[in-house]
Protein backbone atom coordinates (compact mmCIF):
# COMPACT_ATOMS: atom_id res chain seq x y z
CA UNK A 1 0.00 0.00 0.00
CA UNK A 2 2.81 2.37 0.88
CA UNK A 3 4.47 1.65 -2.44
CA UNK A 4 1.37 2.75 -4.35
CA UNK A 5 1.16 5.94 -2.32
CA UNK A 6 4.78 6.73 -3.06
CA UNK A 7 4.14 6.20 -6.77
CA UNK A 8 1.17 8.60 -6.74
CA UNK A 9 3.29 11.25 -5.01
CA UNK A 10 5.86 11.02 -7.76
CA UNK A 11 3.16 11.68 -10.41
CA UNK A 12 1.84 14.78 -8.60
CA UNK A 13 2.67 18.15 -10.28
CA UNK A 14 4.56 20.59 -8.14
CA UNK A 15 3.41 24.04 -9.30
CA UNK A 16 5.98 25.85 -7.16
CA UNK A 17 8.88 24.12 -8.89
CA UNK A 18 10.83 26.46 -11.35
CA UNK A 19 10.69 25.46 -15.07
CA UNK A 20 13.59 23.53 -16.52
CA UNK A 21 15.70 25.34 -19.13
CA UNK A 22 16.35 23.64 -22.48
CA UNK A 23 19.89 22.96 -23.48
CA UNK A 24 21.73 25.44 -25.73
CA UNK A 25 21.84 23.05 -28.76
CA UNK A 26 18.12 22.37 -29.08
CA UNK A 27 17.12 25.78 -30.57
CA UNK A 28 20.05 25.68 -33.00
CA UNK A 29 18.97 22.29 -34.33
CA UNK A 30 15.41 23.50 -34.83
CA UNK A 31 16.65 26.57 -36.76
CA UNK A 32 18.85 24.45 -39.02
CA UNK A 33 15.95 22.11 -39.77
CA UNK A 34 13.69 25.04 -40.71
CA UNK A 35 16.39 26.51 -42.97
CA UNK A 36 16.93 23.19 -44.77
CA UNK A 37 13.21 22.82 -45.38
CA UNK A 38 13.05 26.36 -46.80
CA UNK A 39 16.00 25.73 -49.17
CA UNK A 40 14.42 22.50 -50.38
CA UNK A 41 11.14 24.31 -51.00
CA UNK A 42 12.80 27.06 -53.03
CA UNK A 43 14.75 24.49 -55.07
CA UNK A 44 11.62 22.50 -55.78
CA UNK A 45 9.77 25.65 -56.90
CA UNK A 46 12.67 26.66 -59.18
CA UNK A 47 12.89 23.16 -60.65
CA UNK A 48 9.23 22.50 -61.32
CA UNK A 49 7.82 26.03 -61.53
CA UNK A 50 4.39 27.11 -60.59
CA UNK A 51 2.75 24.22 -62.37
CA UNK A 52 4.85 21.58 -60.66
CA UNK A 53 6.23 20.43 -64.02
CA UNK A 54 9.64 20.84 -65.71
CA UNK A 55 10.60 23.94 -67.68
CA UNK A 56 10.54 23.28 -71.43
CA UNK A 57 11.02 25.12 -74.70
CA UNK A 58 8.46 24.81 -77.48
CA UNK A 59 8.07 25.32 -81.21
CA UNK A 60 5.09 25.71 -83.52
CA UNK A 61 4.31 23.00 -86.08
CA UNK A 62 4.23 24.29 -89.67
CA UNK A 63 1.87 22.86 -92.25
CA UNK A 64 3.56 21.95 -95.54
CA UNK A 65 2.73 19.99 -98.64
CA UNK A 66 1.22 20.50 -102.08
CA UNK A 67 -1.44 23.01 -103.10
CA UNK A 68 -2.92 24.85 -106.05
CA UNK A 69 -3.48 21.64 -107.98
CA UNK A 70 0.13 20.52 -107.51
CA UNK A 71 1.57 17.38 -106.04
CA UNK A 72 3.68 16.73 -102.99
CA UNK A 73 6.70 18.82 -102.15
CA UNK A 74 9.95 17.57 -103.66
CA UNK A 75 12.14 20.19 -101.99
CA UNK A 76 11.79 22.79 -99.23
CA UNK A 77 14.04 25.81 -98.88
CA UNK A 78 14.18 29.27 -97.31
CA UNK A 79 14.53 32.62 -99.01
CA UNK A 80 13.53 36.28 -98.96
CA UNK A 81 11.10 38.56 -100.73
CA UNK A 82 13.00 40.96 -102.99
CA UNK A 83 12.06 43.79 -105.35
CA UNK A 84 13.33 43.63 -108.89
CA UNK A 85 12.66 47.35 -109.30
CA UNK A 86 13.92 49.51 -106.47
CA UNK A 87 15.77 52.83 -106.61
CA UNK A 88 17.32 55.33 -104.24
CA UNK A 89 16.39 58.58 -105.95
CA UNK A 90 18.94 61.40 -105.87
CA UNK A 91 19.41 64.76 -107.56
CA UNK A 92 21.65 64.96 -110.62
CA UNK A 93 23.47 67.95 -109.16
CA UNK A 94 24.86 68.95 -105.78
CA UNK A 95 22.61 71.40 -104.00
CA UNK A 96 20.76 72.39 -100.85
CA UNK A 97 17.35 70.84 -100.29
CA UNK A 98 14.57 73.41 -100.29
CA UNK A 99 11.51 71.18 -99.90
CA UNK A 100 10.84 67.43 -99.47
CA UNK A 101 7.39 66.26 -100.58
CA UNK A 102 7.45 62.55 -99.67
CA UNK A 103 6.94 60.45 -96.55
CA UNK A 104 7.53 56.77 -95.80
CA UNK A 105 4.65 54.61 -96.99
CA UNK A 106 3.44 57.19 -99.52
CA UNK A 107 2.67 56.03 -103.05
CA UNK A 108 4.14 58.13 -105.85
CA UNK A 109 3.49 58.08 -109.58
CA UNK A 110 6.08 58.27 -112.34
CA UNK A 111 7.22 61.88 -112.81
CA UNK A 112 5.77 63.09 -109.51
CA UNK A 113 7.89 65.73 -107.75
CA UNK A 114 9.62 64.28 -104.69
CA UNK A 115 11.78 67.23 -103.67
CA UNK A 116 13.20 70.55 -104.87
CA UNK A 117 16.66 72.06 -104.47
CA UNK A 118 17.62 75.70 -104.03
CA UNK A 119 17.56 77.05 -107.64
CA UNK A 120 19.51 80.31 -107.10
CA UNK A 121 22.67 79.19 -108.89
CA UNK A 122 20.75 77.51 -111.71
CA UNK A 123 18.54 80.54 -112.24
CA UNK A 124 21.56 82.84 -112.32
CA UNK A 125 23.22 80.65 -114.96
CA UNK A 126 20.03 80.66 -117.01
CA UNK A 127 19.80 84.46 -116.89
CA UNK A 128 23.43 84.72 -118.01
CA UNK A 129 22.81 82.36 -120.94
CA UNK A 130 19.69 84.30 -121.91
CA UNK A 131 21.70 87.56 -121.88
CA UNK A 132 24.42 85.99 -124.03
CA UNK A 133 21.79 84.88 -126.52
CA UNK A 134 20.38 88.40 -126.68
CA UNK A 135 23.84 89.86 -127.25
CA UNK A 136 24.52 87.37 -130.05
CA UNK A 137 21.24 88.29 -131.73
CA UNK A 138 22.05 92.02 -131.52
CA UNK A 139 25.49 91.45 -132.98
CA UNK A 140 23.97 89.49 -135.84
CA UNK A 141 21.56 92.33 -136.60
CA UNK A 142 24.42 94.88 -136.62
CA UNK A 143 26.56 92.79 -138.96
CA UNK A 144 23.57 92.17 -141.21
CA UNK A 145 22.99 95.90 -141.57
CA UNK A 146 26.64 96.54 -142.41
CA UNK A 147 26.63 93.70 -144.91
CA UNK A 148 23.60 95.13 -146.70
CA UNK A 149 25.37 98.47 -147.08
CA UNK A 150 28.61 96.81 -148.22
CA UNK A 151 26.81 94.74 -150.85
CA UNK A 152 25.09 97.83 -152.26
CA UNK A 153 28.39 99.74 -152.29
CA UNK A 154 30.19 96.91 -154.06
CA UNK A 155 27.44 96.68 -156.64
CA UNK A 156 27.56 100.41 -157.31
CA UNK A 157 31.36 100.47 -157.61
CA UNK A 158 31.21 97.53 -160.00
CA UNK A 159 29.09 99.64 -162.36
CA UNK A 160 31.36 102.65 -162.00
CA UNK A 161 34.49 100.57 -162.47
CA UNK A 162 32.98 99.18 -165.69
CA UNK A 163 32.54 102.77 -166.89
CA UNK A 164 36.09 103.51 -165.69
CA UNK A 165 34.80 106.23 -163.40
CA UNK A 166 36.54 104.73 -160.31
CA UNK A 167 39.74 102.86 -159.95
CA UNK A 168 39.80 99.08 -159.80
CA UNK A 169 41.43 99.24 -156.34
CA UNK A 170 38.42 101.01 -154.89
CA UNK A 171 36.16 98.34 -156.28
CA UNK A 172 38.40 95.57 -154.93
CA UNK A 173 38.34 97.18 -151.47
CA UNK A 174 34.53 97.32 -151.51
CA UNK A 175 34.36 93.63 -152.48
CA UNK A 176 36.77 92.71 -149.65
CA UNK A 177 34.70 94.66 -147.14
CA UNK A 178 31.56 92.89 -148.33
CA UNK A 179 33.15 89.41 -148.03
CA UNK A 180 34.49 90.20 -144.53
CA UNK A 181 31.02 91.24 -143.35
CA UNK A 182 29.58 88.06 -144.80
CA UNK A 183 32.06 86.03 -142.70
CA UNK A 184 31.21 88.09 -139.61
CA UNK A 185 27.51 87.46 -140.20
CA UNK A 186 28.09 83.70 -140.39
CA UNK A 187 30.06 83.86 -137.11
CA UNK A 188 27.32 85.88 -135.45
CA UNK A 189 24.69 83.41 -136.58
CA UNK A 190 26.73 80.54 -135.15
CA UNK A 191 27.10 82.47 -131.89
CA UNK A 192 23.32 82.68 -131.74
CA UNK A 193 23.11 78.90 -132.06
CA UNK A 194 25.77 78.40 -129.36
CA UNK A 195 24.01 80.84 -127.04
CA UNK A 196 20.71 79.09 -127.69
CA UNK A 197 22.23 75.72 -126.81
CA UNK A 198 23.74 77.25 -123.69
CA UNK A 199 20.30 78.54 -122.70
CA UNK A 200 18.76 75.10 -123.19
CA UNK A 201 21.49 73.60 -121.00
CA UNK A 202 20.76 76.24 -118.37
CA UNK A 203 17.08 75.28 -118.54
CA UNK A 204 18.08 71.66 -117.89
CA UNK A 205 20.14 72.86 -114.93
CA UNK A 206 17.05 74.58 -113.52
CA UNK A 207 15.01 71.42 -114.10
CA UNK A 208 17.68 69.37 -112.32
CA UNK A 209 16.80 71.21 -109.13
CA UNK A 210 13.49 69.31 -109.20
CA UNK A 211 13.72 65.63 -108.18
CA UNK A 212 11.02 63.44 -109.75
CA UNK A 213 10.03 59.81 -109.25
CA UNK A 214 11.55 57.61 -111.99
CA UNK A 215 8.67 55.10 -111.76
CA UNK A 216 5.51 54.45 -109.79
CA UNK A 217 5.96 52.81 -106.42
CA UNK A 218 5.91 53.17 -102.65
CA UNK A 219 8.39 55.26 -100.66
CA UNK A 220 10.18 52.99 -98.18
CA UNK A 221 12.77 55.48 -96.89
CA UNK A 222 13.03 59.26 -96.61
CA UNK A 223 16.71 60.17 -96.56
CA UNK A 224 16.89 63.98 -96.66
CA UNK A 225 15.41 67.02 -94.94
CA UNK A 226 15.13 70.69 -95.99
CA UNK A 227 18.42 72.55 -95.52
CA UNK A 228 20.65 69.53 -96.07
CA UNK A 229 23.11 69.25 -98.95
CA UNK A 230 22.54 66.36 -101.36
CA UNK A 231 24.94 65.11 -103.97
CA UNK A 232 25.02 62.03 -106.23
CA UNK A 233 28.73 61.67 -105.45
CA UNK A 234 28.46 61.97 -101.62
CA UNK A 235 30.86 64.93 -101.65
CA UNK A 236 31.41 66.50 -98.25
CA UNK A 237 31.57 63.38 -96.10
CA UNK A 238 28.94 62.69 -93.49
CA UNK A 239 27.31 66.09 -93.88
CA UNK A 240 26.15 65.37 -97.44
CA UNK A 241 23.23 63.10 -98.32
CA UNK A 242 23.37 60.92 -101.41
CA UNK A 243 19.64 60.54 -101.95
CA UNK A 244 16.20 61.96 -101.31
CA UNK A 245 14.39 58.68 -100.72
CA UNK A 246 13.96 55.05 -101.78
CA UNK A 247 11.11 53.86 -103.99
CA UNK A 248 10.04 50.23 -104.41
CA UNK A 249 7.80 48.99 -107.19
CA UNK A 250 5.57 46.59 -105.25
CA UNK A 251 4.42 44.97 -108.49
CA UNK A 252 7.98 43.72 -109.05
CA UNK A 253 8.20 41.70 -105.82
CA UNK A 254 9.40 38.13 -106.13
CA UNK A 255 11.17 35.50 -104.02
CA UNK A 256 14.84 34.61 -104.19
CA UNK A 257 15.84 31.20 -102.81
CA UNK A 258 19.29 29.69 -102.40
CA UNK A 259 19.04 25.97 -103.22
CA UNK A 260 21.86 23.59 -102.41
CA UNK A 261 23.82 22.26 -105.37
CA UNK A 262 22.92 18.70 -104.43
CA UNK A 263 19.19 19.40 -104.81
CA UNK A 264 19.06 21.88 -107.70
CA UNK A 265 18.23 19.04 -110.10
CA UNK A 266 14.80 18.79 -108.50
CA UNK A 267 13.91 22.36 -109.52
CA UNK A 268 12.63 23.15 -113.02
CA UNK A 269 11.40 26.39 -114.66
CA UNK A 270 7.61 26.92 -114.46
CA UNK A 271 7.52 24.52 -111.51
CA UNK A 272 4.63 25.19 -109.08
CA UNK A 273 5.70 26.53 -105.70
CA UNK A 274 3.94 27.09 -102.40
CA UNK A 275 5.33 29.95 -100.29
CA UNK A 276 4.71 30.62 -96.60
CA UNK A 277 5.85 33.93 -95.07
CA UNK A 278 7.44 33.72 -91.64
CA UNK A 279 5.16 36.56 -90.56
CA UNK A 280 2.00 34.69 -91.67
CA UNK A 281 2.64 30.95 -91.13
CA UNK A 282 -0.97 29.96 -91.90
CA UNK A 283 -1.12 31.79 -95.25
CA UNK A 284 -0.07 29.69 -98.24
CA UNK A 285 0.81 31.77 -101.30
CA UNK A 286 0.79 30.19 -104.77
CA UNK A 287 3.93 30.86 -106.76
CA UNK A 288 5.95 29.60 -109.71
CA UNK A 289 9.61 29.23 -110.61
CA UNK A 290 10.72 32.02 -112.96
CA UNK A 291 14.29 30.98 -113.65
CA UNK A 292 17.30 29.19 -112.25
CA UNK A 293 20.28 31.58 -112.28
CA UNK A 294 23.04 29.74 -114.20
CA UNK A 295 25.79 30.31 -111.66
CA UNK A 296 26.69 28.85 -108.28
CA UNK A 297 27.96 30.42 -105.08
CA UNK A 298 31.29 28.75 -104.39
CA UNK A 299 31.33 29.71 -100.72
CA UNK A 300 27.81 28.48 -99.89
CA UNK A 301 27.54 25.76 -102.57
CA UNK A 302 24.12 27.06 -103.58
CA UNK A 303 22.31 28.10 -106.76
CA UNK A 304 19.90 31.05 -106.77
CA UNK A 305 16.32 30.44 -107.93
CA UNK A 306 13.83 33.20 -108.78
CA UNK A 307 10.21 32.55 -107.83
CA UNK A 308 7.23 34.61 -109.03
CA UNK A 309 4.42 35.47 -106.60
CA UNK A 310 1.03 34.92 -108.26
CA UNK A 311 -1.15 36.72 -105.73
CA UNK A 312 -0.23 40.36 -105.01
CA UNK A 313 -1.04 41.47 -101.49
CA UNK A 314 -0.10 44.56 -99.40
CA UNK A 315 1.09 42.24 -96.63
CA UNK A 316 3.99 41.07 -98.80
CA UNK A 317 6.87 43.52 -98.39
CA UNK A 318 10.57 43.40 -99.36
CA UNK A 319 13.10 41.49 -97.24
CA UNK A 320 10.47 39.30 -95.55
CA UNK A 321 11.62 35.80 -94.73
CA UNK A 322 9.76 33.07 -96.59
CA UNK A 323 9.80 29.29 -96.76
CA UNK A 324 9.00 27.71 -100.11
CA UNK A 325 8.04 24.20 -101.14
CA UNK A 326 8.81 23.16 -104.71
CA UNK A 327 5.92 20.95 -105.82
CA UNK A 328 5.71 18.19 -108.36
CA UNK A 329 2.89 18.22 -110.88
CA UNK A 330 0.01 16.32 -109.32
CA UNK A 331 -1.80 13.57 -111.13
CA UNK A 332 -5.61 13.60 -110.74
CA UNK A 333 -5.69 10.41 -108.68
CA UNK A 334 -2.79 11.56 -106.50
CA UNK A 335 -4.36 14.97 -105.95
CA UNK A 336 -7.48 13.36 -104.49
CA UNK A 337 -5.57 10.90 -102.31
CA UNK A 338 -2.84 13.26 -101.09
CA UNK A 339 -2.96 14.12 -97.39
CA UNK A 340 -1.60 17.26 -95.74
CA UNK A 341 1.69 17.03 -93.90
CA UNK A 342 3.46 19.09 -91.28
CA UNK A 343 7.01 20.02 -90.36
CA UNK A 344 8.49 20.02 -86.87
CA UNK A 345 12.02 20.48 -85.51
CA UNK A 346 13.79 17.15 -85.31
CA UNK A 347 14.58 17.86 -81.64
CA UNK A 348 10.88 17.53 -80.78
CA UNK A 349 10.69 13.87 -81.84
CA UNK A 350 11.43 11.19 -79.22
CA UNK A 351 11.07 7.42 -78.97
CA UNK A 352 8.41 6.37 -76.47
CA UNK A 353 7.13 2.79 -76.24
CA UNK A 354 8.93 1.97 -79.48
CA UNK A 355 7.10 4.67 -81.44
CA UNK A 356 8.05 8.09 -82.78
CA UNK A 357 6.21 10.62 -80.64
CA UNK A 358 5.98 14.31 -79.81
CA UNK A 359 4.54 16.11 -76.81
CA UNK A 360 1.84 18.62 -77.76
CA UNK A 361 1.38 21.44 -75.22
CA UNK A 362 -2.12 22.65 -74.42
CA UNK A 363 -3.40 24.35 -71.24
CA UNK A 364 -0.08 23.83 -69.46
CA UNK A 365 0.02 20.07 -70.02
CA UNK A 366 1.93 17.92 -72.51
CA UNK A 367 0.04 15.23 -74.37
CA UNK A 368 2.09 12.44 -75.92
CA UNK A 369 1.16 12.04 -79.60
CA UNK A 370 2.37 9.29 -81.92
CA UNK A 371 3.50 10.50 -85.35
CA UNK A 372 4.49 9.04 -88.70
CA UNK A 373 7.67 10.52 -90.09
CA UNK A 374 8.41 11.46 -93.69
CA UNK A 375 11.42 13.18 -95.21
CA UNK A 376 14.29 14.84 -93.39
CA UNK A 377 14.33 18.58 -94.20
CA UNK A 378 17.57 19.95 -92.80
CA UNK A 379 17.07 20.45 -89.06
CA UNK A 380 13.37 19.74 -89.47
CA UNK A 381 11.39 16.56 -89.94
CA UNK A 382 8.28 16.02 -92.02
CA UNK A 383 5.33 14.44 -90.21
CA UNK A 384 2.80 12.76 -92.50
CA UNK A 385 0.38 11.62 -89.77
CA UNK A 386 -0.35 12.81 -86.25
CA UNK A 387 0.03 16.57 -86.76
CA UNK A 388 -1.69 18.97 -89.13
CA UNK A 389 0.06 22.28 -88.38
CA UNK A 390 -0.37 24.99 -85.78
CA UNK A 391 0.25 22.77 -82.75
CA UNK A 392 2.82 23.67 -80.10
CA UNK A 393 5.33 20.88 -79.36
CA UNK A 394 8.01 20.44 -76.70
CA UNK A 395 11.63 20.64 -77.86
CA UNK A 396 13.96 17.98 -76.42
CA UNK A 397 11.38 16.47 -74.01
CA UNK A 398 13.03 15.24 -70.79
CA UNK A 399 12.84 11.54 -69.98
CA UNK A 400 10.78 12.34 -66.89
CA UNK A 401 8.00 13.94 -68.96
CA UNK A 402 4.97 11.67 -69.14
CA UNK A 403 1.73 11.81 -71.07
CA UNK A 404 -0.52 14.46 -69.53
CA UNK A 405 2.27 15.85 -67.37
CA UNK A 406 2.32 19.50 -66.42
CA UNK A 407 5.00 21.69 -68.01
CA UNK A 408 6.13 25.28 -67.77
CA UNK A 409 6.90 26.92 -71.12
CA UNK A 410 10.02 29.10 -71.01
CA UNK A 411 10.00 30.60 -74.51
CA UNK A 412 7.31 32.71 -76.17
CA UNK A 413 6.75 30.56 -79.24
CA UNK A 414 3.55 31.24 -81.16
CA UNK A 415 0.77 29.12 -79.76
CA UNK A 416 2.54 28.52 -76.43
CA UNK A 417 1.50 29.81 -73.03
CA UNK A 418 3.22 30.28 -69.72
CA UNK A 419 0.95 28.71 -67.17
UniProtKB/TrEMBL annotation:
Ranges for domain YknX-like C-terminal permuted SH3-like come to 343-409
Q: Which GO terms describe its molecular function?
A: efflux transmembrane transporter activity
- Map out region (Disordered) in residue numbers: 380-419
Q: Which residues form the Multidrug resistance protein MdtA-like barrel-sandwich hybrid domain?
A: 85-231
Mark the transmembrane ranges: 27-48
Q: Which UniProt keywords apply?
A: Membrane, Transmembrane, Transmembrane helix
Its GO CC terms are: efflux pump complex
Superkingdom of source: Bacteria
The chain's coiled-coil residues are none
Q: Which residues form the CusB-like beta-barrel domain?
A: 255-327
> Which family is it part of?
Belongs to the membrane fusion protein (MFP) (TC 8.A.1) family.
- What's this protein's name? Efflux transporter, RND family, MFP subunit
UniProt source species: Lysobacter antibioticus
Amino acid sequence: MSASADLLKELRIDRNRPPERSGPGRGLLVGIAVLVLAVLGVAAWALFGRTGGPRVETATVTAIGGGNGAGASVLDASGYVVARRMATVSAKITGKVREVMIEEGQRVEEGQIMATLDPIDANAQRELSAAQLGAAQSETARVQAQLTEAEANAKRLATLAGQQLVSKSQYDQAVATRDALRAQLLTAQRNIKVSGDSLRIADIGVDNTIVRAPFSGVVTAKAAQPGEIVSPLSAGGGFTRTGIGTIVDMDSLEIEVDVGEAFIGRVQPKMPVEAVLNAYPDWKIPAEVIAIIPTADRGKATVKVRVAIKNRDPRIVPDMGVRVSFLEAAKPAQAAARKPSAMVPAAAIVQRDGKDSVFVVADGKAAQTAVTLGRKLGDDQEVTQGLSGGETVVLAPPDSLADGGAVRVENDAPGSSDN
